[in-house]
Amino acid sequence: MPPDPRGRSEPAASNGIPDIIKDMSAEVVDSNPYSRLMALQRMGIVENYESIRDFSVAIVGIGGVGSVAAEMLTRCGIGRLLLYDYDSVELANMNRLFFRPDQVGMTKTDAAVQTLSDINPDVILELFLEHTTVKGFETFVESLKRKSSRMSAHCVDLVLSCVDNYEARMVVNQACNELSQTWMESGVSEDAVSGHIQLLIPGETACFACAPPLVVASGVDERTLKREGVCAASLPTTMGVVAGLLVQNALKYLLKFGKCLPVLHIFSPSLLFQGYNSLKDFFPTMEMKPNPQCSNAACLERQREYILAKPARDAAIKAKVDAEASSKVTGPIHVDNEWNISVVDDSEGQSSHSDISDALPQGLVRELPSADGYPLEEPGPSFDDLDELRRQLEALNAA
Ligand SMILES: [Zn+2]
């Protein structure tokens, strides 16, 4: 029997809270909460923005990243959110976004529903307390399979993991491998200055057990790393960046915009893992293929299925590419050119620089420093070959 969610948002009362809106409108009026989102469609970024209401997203862990991700998806008008967390709101959480001091003592899921249903009563919210215990795991798997009574077509479309420990991630990994469910993993480091997101498509990309984190691969028990009395650091900035990256990729995945590969999913392989180092503003990316020796049996099963389906998948991709190529428009994109806009050749633009006069633009009385007044740097010695460079370095070291 499918488990009942513990709660669900009720239609908002008429105390200044918006009413439920049946259809998303693109009408540009101050009272329309969706006008700026529907503009994505008008501007050609998203083909069908309103389809966001057909999607169900599960967020596991409603902490510093998960709560912000939930708010972003709620404001974007997602159809249904399933929220999982066993924890309560504490004053120690106030350095992060989302929760408020008056919510201290409430469960994070209850507090989240209170805020999210006020922001957008159109979103269906379902709450679950636990997913890591044995019973919790069964409930978790069932909840991902269950369709909403208000949204007939879809089970969960995407799972976002926003938990803070390895064990909880492995539970999400197990459930998603068993269900062949695409998910995205996120995390923020204990020193609060770096983070990552990762896309996991069972069978196609590495699962969480295919490439365990270094600490796990080296055989160290993660729990022994948590020193008594030493709490992990956290910054609302890093968590906000990671939540933003996570939800941006979730939106691209669901609404199919951004870089679209013929592999029928929207990520370039190099974007399967995205890191973030805030100290250097560095975003390393890497491709993570599944490990044929993965310890997770369900992962191996999904890998086999993926390989078996390859010929049919390749044929479908080829047919799609051929169809697109044959339907390509060869004429001008815009027949009318009311404003006489023309494309200027880059080289033409560069050559016109020599025509710039010394006269100051109208209204500008002085220009400092004059660009022409800078002495040109003397060109340094050039090294035509490596031998010459090596000789010079050796001479320097010998001195
Ligand atoms: Zn695996």
UniProtKB/TrEMBL annotation:
GO cellular component annotations of the record: cytosol
Could you give a GO molecular-function term held by this entry? ATP binding
An example of a Pfam family matching this protein is ThiF
Regions that span the bilayer: none
Record's keyword terms, sorted = ATP-binding, Metal-binding, Nucleotide-binding, Ubl conjugation pathway, Zinc
Q: Where is the THIF-type NAD/FAD binding fold domain?
A: 34-295
Q: What is this protein called?
A: Ubiquitin-like modifier-activating enzyme 5
Species this protein is from: Spirodela intermedia
